[in-house]
Hints:
By secondary structure, the chain is α+β, with helices and mostly antiparallel strands. The chain has one domain. Helices cover 28% and strands 23% of the residues. It contains seven helices and eleven strands. It has helices spanning 31-42, 63-78, 136-146, 153-172, 191-194, 232-235, 239-247; strands spanning 13-15, 20-24, 48-53, 56-61, 83-91, 97-106, 113-120, 125-129, 220-223, 228-231, 269-272. Helix 2 packs across helix 3 (136-146). It is globular, with a radius of gyration of 19 Å. The relative contact order is 0.20. This is Zinc finger PHD-type domain-containing protein. It comes from Mytilus galloprovincialis (Mediterranean mussel).
Amino acid sequence: MSRRSSRELVPTKIYTPSKSIQTTKNYVLNEKRTLNKIKEAANRDIDIQATLKRGNLIIQFSSAAFLQFNTCFDQYFSSNQSLKLTVHERFDLSKKLSERSISFADVSNPSKQLYRVNIFNTTCRIEVNGKQFMSFIDELSKIASQMSNDVDYKHLNTKIKEQCDFLLSSINNGHNSSVVVDNNTKISQSKAVTNAAAGSNDIKNPKVCPKCTRNCLSRSVWCNRGEHWIHYNCEKLKSEMINILENNLDTNHYICSICDIDSIDDKQVLSVNSPT
């Protein structure tokens, strides 16, 4: 197990447009890996799967369901007058969007965060955390009610996989191709392939804590599965565990709560099947 050294790190470049904070990370996304992750999400048997784990609400989607959820999510909160949203968008060096992090606060008390929603494009997953993260469930039910039952997720997932295969073939052959997914739903173009193919929740910059998005200068532990640092406080580690981590430097087997999704208790899972 490893600890974070206290050496100085180069901060990321941040600039603030009118509606969001945008950060350019010092890496370029791996297109092949990204497309394969989208294909993996398109192969999921369950289109929407919500889980409560360690004080976080984790929702995993199929690629098609993620596409529609993202659209309805943006439409719903763009008209919400009771919440103040601060959007943080992260791009790679080629300006491809890798993830979004949205902080929610009440308009009457905008400085106090209620909860945060992290949207990971490639793995088609969102994570909700914060002191009042359970209140997002009320908003979630309203967003779900706006999602059209006419969308054939199975068909759209098949089209997404076909386009991913086409792009992978083009990359292997040294060609560049644009991607459009034709379908008979209200979703006319597959952002799950264009935008999500440009994004990834892979923690490409291991210096940045994936929960608070701040640099890990100290008081951090290395996640062996995700290959990134994460703060003790963000992991809610007790002093006994911290002492174990700091005194057993020869073993690198720590897996953080974000990467340890596979150990979910089945009793906590809420599933939504694809419409037929």
